[in-house]
Amino acid sequence: MATGIIPHRNTLTTVANVCGSSSGQSVISFLYDFVTPFGGAHPGYTTIEGRPLAGNNGTMLVTVTGMGASRSLSVMGVTLRGLSGTTVTNGSVTPMGELGQYLVFLSEVPGGQFSVLVKGLLNGSQVYQRQSSTMLTASDIVVRTDLNISLEPGKDYIIPFSMETNGTGGTFSISVRDDKRFVINFTESVTAGSNGTARGTFALSVPATVASGTDLTITVEAQSTSNSDFNYAVLRLAIDKKVDDFVPPACQVTHVSENCSFPCGLEEWSLQAEIRDNRSAVVRVFTHLGNGTLNTTQESGGASGNVTLVSYSASCCAPEVEILAVDSVGNVGVCSHSIRSVPSSTSAPSAAPLCSIVSLLLCCLLGLPSPL
Question: In angstroms, rounded to a whole number, what is the distance separating the alpha carbons of residues 281 and 266?
Answer without folding.
Answer: 38
